[in-house]
Write a structure and sequence with these properties.
Number of helices of chain B: 12
Helix content of chain B: over 70%
Strand order of the largest sheet of chain A: 6-7-8-3-9-10
Radius of gyration of chain B: 25 Å
Largest sheet of chain A: 6 strands, mixed
CATH architecture of the largest domain in chain B: Orthogonal Bundle
Shape of chain A: globular
Distance between the termini of chain B: 50 Å
Radius of gyration of chain A: 19 Å
Order of helices and strands of chain A: EEEHEEEHHHEHEHEEHH
Oligomer: heterodimer
Mean pLDDT of chain A: 88
Strand content of chain B: under 5%
Strand content of chain A: 15-25%
Mean pLDDT of chain B: 86
Structural class of chain A: alpha/beta
Number of helices of chain A: 8
CATH topology of the largest domain in chain B: MetI-like fold
Low-confidence stretches of chain B: 275-283
CATH class of the largest domain in chain B: Mainly Alpha
Structural class of chain B: mainly alpha
Chain lengths: 272, 283
């Protein structure tokens, strides 16, 4: 753990990403500069289709920038020795494995011994509140439980960075509230570097140390704000704090323009 | 109120029928099925020889007698064994080849694109039309039937495997990649299990066709097997013997299907019940 704190864990330097070529070319992400420090929780909001997921896929090294550079711990992403946890928007637990076997999976492919991976997976499941469900199949679990299982699987191998792509987007409001609460507790314990994508500004402020607002496509960074609310946060009453309200107003003003720009039909309806 | 009184009065009008019906309804489903079977057999037994010439429609008792005779002299078991051998050998070879080919095609879009027209053409060719050719090439023994069975089984298993491998949810692969799985590990731990439902479906669907292939092969030219027994009987206008052979085939197909369903449920324990019920109709 001899990492100098001056050097950010994640550095995006003029990153661009486009799909297709010629006339059908679509710029998904344009000129993104962002540095994320060790242990920081950065939430990213933006209108749908603004390249948030593309940005996350690049951080996960599933896609690669067309221009610009992504550095992890100061080295180009391809050669960096950085482990990444990835929680997808949709439920991605393997349905042919039990919950426990799912959480064991990343340890299994790392060649961790059977006894150790069982022990670690059981402990991880306990931390996300899924003790007693080890031998359930994923179809026997509720949406919220599956998403916690996903999070457990992404954390069990102790990755340096955890990427979350709207993990609670498909859950109902009450379940989402519980998940947010639990995620905050886990983040506080684990001290992980988290990049969390959401379309929910409220969630972005609740969970983030910093909130990044992205523009409509091609996605670039419109605004970055430090949240500056003390942790642990009281999620039930945080919206009463002046700082929260101020951020909400400021960020929503920025986000709304982009949302309207992303959906021109809705914009004219609002204008008239 | 009015509704209650009308149902009550209706019940009063037909008391004896309602009780008879409710007796039947109280039986378990399988018992009701057996009851239906017994009724059909009874009507059949009555009709044959009275309303219909037994030459065309032999009574169930005659079919059973014919079955019994062939079972006692051992010819039934020898023929059954021959047909099962052809079916199983052909199925094993055809399914294995199809699994390998399906996986290769599913993993390599270029190979799939190049060979696709040939496969479509081969699959469109009626296998029955190939059967006489196989007899010429491979003789009237086991080999020609096995080859015919392979051609029946191959395409069903192949297309299901191909489809299964190709349609694996990309999210699973992405997640495994990020978690650090190698290509090999992804294939073994993600693609294969995700493709299993379709592969198992293909295997299940192909078994009855394997049986059909063996019997058709025996019809064309053979000296043993259930198809041979049926053909021999029909050539001598022995309708009871013909039907006896058909019933044995039916029983074999049903038993195999039952066993396969049980096996499939074991392999696909993680799937919801409804997903695996789609196949029986093809029998």
């Amino acid at each position: 753990m001899s990492i100098s704190h001056d050097e950010p864990l994640i550095e995006l330097d003029g990153v661009c990403r486009s799909f297709g070529s010629g006339e059908t070319r679509v710029d998904a992400v344009r000129d993104v500069d962002l540095a994320i420090g060790e242990g920081e929780i950065v939430t990213v909001v933006g209108p749908s289709g603004c390249g948030k997921s593309s940005l996350l896929n690049m951080l996960a090294c599933l896609e690669h920038p067309d221009r610009g550079e992504l550095r992890l711990r100061g080295r180009p992403a391809a050669e960096a020795d950085v482990e990444i946890g990835y929680v997808t928007q949709s439920d991605s637990l393997f349905p042919w494995r039990t919950l426990l076997a799912n959480v064991e999976y990343p340890l299994e492919i790392r060649g961790v011994s059977k006894a150790e991976r069982r022990e670690r997976a059981v402990a991880m499941l306990a931390r996300v509140g899924l003790s007693g469900f080890e031998n359930h199949l994923t179809r026997q679990l509720s949406g919220g439980m599956r998403q916690r299982g996903n999070i457990a699987r992404a954390l069990v191998y102790d990755p340096d960075i955890v990427l979350m792509d709207e993990p609670f987007g498909a859950l109902d409001a009450q379940t989402r509230l519980l998940q947010q609460r639990q995620l905050q507790a886990i983040c506080a314990e684990e001290r992980k570097t988290v990049v969390f994508i959401t379309h929910d500004l409220h969630e972005a402020i609740l969970l983030g140390d910093r909130v990044v607002v992205m523009t409509a496509r091609p996605g670039s960074i419109k605004m970055v704000r430090d949240v500056g609310l003390d942790r642990p946060r009281d999620l039930d009453h945080i919206h009463e704090e002046p700082r929260f309200q101020q951020l909400m107003t400021e960020l929503w003003d920025a986000l709304r323009d982009e949302v309207l720009r992303a959906a021109p039909a809705a914009a004219t309806a609002v204008a008239s | 109120m009015t509704r209650a009184t009308t149902t009550a009065s209706r019940r009063k009008q037909v008391p004896e029928r309602a009780t008879a019906r409710s007796h039947v309804k109280r039986l378990p489903i399988w018992a009701q099925s057996v009851l239906l079977l017994v009724a059909v057999l009874a009507v059949w037994q009555f009709v044959s020889g009275r309303l219909v010439d037994p030459f065309y429609l032999p009574a169930p008792s005659e079919i059973v007698t014919s079955l019994w005779l062939s079972a006692v002299d051992g010819s039934l078991w020898a023929n059954l064994w021959t047909t099962l051998q052809e079916t199983m050998i052909g199925f094993c070879i055809g399914a294995t080849a199809a699994l390998v080919a399906g996986v290769i095609f599913g993993r390599s879009p270029r190979v799939a694109a190049v060979l696709d027209p040939f496969l479509v053409a081969l699959n469109a060719t009626p296998r029955v039309a190939l059967a006489p050719l196989f007899v010429v090439w491979f003789g009237i023994g086991l080999l020609s039937k096995v080859i015919l069975v392979i051609t029946m089984v191959f395409f069903i298993v192949f297309y299901n495997t191909f489809q299964g491998v190709r349609s694996v949810d990309a999210t699973y692969i992405r997640v495994a990649t990020v978690m650090g799985a190698s290509q090999r590990q992804i294939f073994r731990t993600v693609i294969l299990p995700a493709a299993t439902p379709l592969i198992v479906l293909g295997l299940k669907l192909s078994i009855p066709f394997a049986l059909i292939g063996a019997v058709i092969g025996e019809f064309i030219a053979s000296s043993a097997g259930l198809g041979f027994q049926i053909k021999l009987a029909s050539n001598t206008y022995d309708t009871a013997g013909t039907m006896a052979g058909i019933f044995v085939l039916m029983a074999v197909a049903v038993l195999i299907d039952l066993a396969l369903n049980r096996l499939a449920r074991r392999i696909l324990f993680w799937q919801p019940e409804s997903a695996e019920r789609t196949t029986s109709s093809t029998m």
